């Protein structure tokens, strides 16, 4: 079976993205496949697990690496591409908006976020994607502007114990800012500047290297796992830049080379070491097995970068 056919032999959440990103299928065909995400497969299963009060597992975020929560369920629905306009999605998000609060932080409504930029970047992504912008997103944006560090990025531990940015926090915030720009159209100058400065933090480091030595900053950045949760990795970062920029930045060449270096002999990419924590669904292959999600994301990144994918 060729790689594209193998990708299409999968969940509708993955198929519709293959149609859009690799096959340039007509919009009507893409939309038809995307509409299946909420009625069958992973998307439908995840929606069915929400309780009438809007919670997943009675938890807004999830302590001790527990991924059974509102935050990680909405994050996965966004990565699966559940259409925000589908009635089951609108109903689920409405329950979150109306009932879920941050119990450990002043009982703020969920879409108002809390205090850590890495979490608030994710809440902003979800609020923008699912059409929940307003007072809450304004609060988050105001905090993120003040929390951006001089080197251009963000760090969940700053300013208490760190004065430098982290790859993980920076990418999480950038994903939120990008989703916001998509939702509002032309971005205000301050928003565009904040995102540009954050991107420069990663680009100066080729997406995964220490600025001081040029060596890989963390070995786990070369571990590709889906969904990525809060963990940074080269593939997640490249997929962000693919979504954010029409043209490829050559400073990412080393990251693309690292991505190509992980390709298997059959032209696919393996699933990485899974991140710790309890989950509702195993949406990707077991560690070391061919991963449809990694392969899809890698192929669309290479296509954007102008590198032959041999799919």
Quick description:
The chain is mostly helical. It has helices spanning 3-8, 12-21, 27-34, 41-48, 70-80, 87-99, 117-129, 135-147, 167-184, 189-203, 234-244, 253-261, 292-305; strands at 101-102, 108-109.
> Into which percent range does the helicity of residues fall?
40-55%
Query: How many H/I helices?
Result: 13
What is the typical, i.e. mean, pLDDT?
A: 95
**Rg measurement, Å:** 19 Å
Instruction: State the domain count.
Output: 1
Distance between the termini: 11 Å
Which residues sit in consecutive blocks of at least 5 with pLDDT less than 50? none
Structure characterization notes:
The chain is 48% helix and 1% strand. The chain has 311 residues and is mainly alpha-helical. The protein has one domain (50-305): Glycosyltransferase, CATH 1.50.10.20. A two-stranded antiparallel sheet has the order 1-2. Helix 2 packs antiparallel against helix 3 (27-34). The termini are close together.
Supply database-style keywords.
Glycosyltransferase; single chain; mainly alpha; Squalene cyclase C-terminal domain-containing protein; Terpenoid_cyclase/PrenylTrfase; 311 residues; globular
Map the helices and strands.
Blueprint: H1 3-8, H2 12-21, H3 27-34, H4 41-48, H5 70-80, H6 87-99, E1 101-102, E2 108-109, H7 117-129, H8 135-147, H9 167-184, H10 189-203, H11 234-244, H12 253-261, H13 292-305
């Amino acid at each position: 079976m060729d790689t594209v056919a193998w990708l299409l032999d999968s969940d509708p959440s993955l198929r519709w993205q293959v149609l859009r990103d690799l096959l340039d299928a007509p919009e009507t065909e893409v939309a038809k496949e995307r509409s299946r995400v909420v009625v069958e497969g992973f998307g439908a299963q995840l929606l069915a697990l929400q309780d009438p009060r809007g919670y997943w597992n009675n938890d807004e975020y999830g302590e001790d690496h527990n991924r059974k929560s509102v935050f990680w369920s909405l994050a996965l629905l966004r990565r699966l591409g559940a259409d925000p306009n589908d009635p089951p999605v609108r109903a689920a998000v409405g329950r979150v908006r109306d009932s879920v609060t941050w119990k450990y932080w002043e009982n703020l409504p969920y879409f108002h976020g809390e205090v850590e930029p890495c979490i608030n970047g994710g809440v902003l992504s979800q609020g923008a994607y699912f059409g929940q912008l307003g007072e809450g997103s304004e609060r988050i944006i105001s905090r993120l502007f003040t929390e951006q560090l001089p080197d251009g990025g963000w760090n969940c531990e700053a300013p208490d114990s760190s004065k430098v940015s982290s790859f993980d926090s920076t990418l999480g915030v950038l994903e939120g800012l990008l989703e916001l720009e998509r939702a509002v159209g032309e971005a205000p100058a301050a928003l565009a500047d904040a995102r540009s400065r954050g991107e420069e933090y990663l680009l100066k480091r080729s997406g995964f290297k220490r600025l001081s030595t040029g060596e890989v900053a963390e070995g786990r950045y070369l571990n590709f796992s889906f969904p990525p949760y809060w963990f940074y990795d080269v593939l997640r970062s490249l997929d962000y830049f693919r979504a954010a920029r029409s043209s490829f930045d050559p400073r990412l060449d080393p990251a693309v080379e690292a991505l190509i270096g992980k390709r298997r002999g059959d032209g696919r990419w393996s699933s990485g070491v899974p991140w710790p924590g309890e989950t509702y669904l195993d949406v990707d292959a077991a560690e070391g097995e061919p991963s449809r999600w990694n392969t899809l994301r890698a192929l669309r990144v290479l296509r954007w970068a102008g590198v032959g994918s041999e799919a």
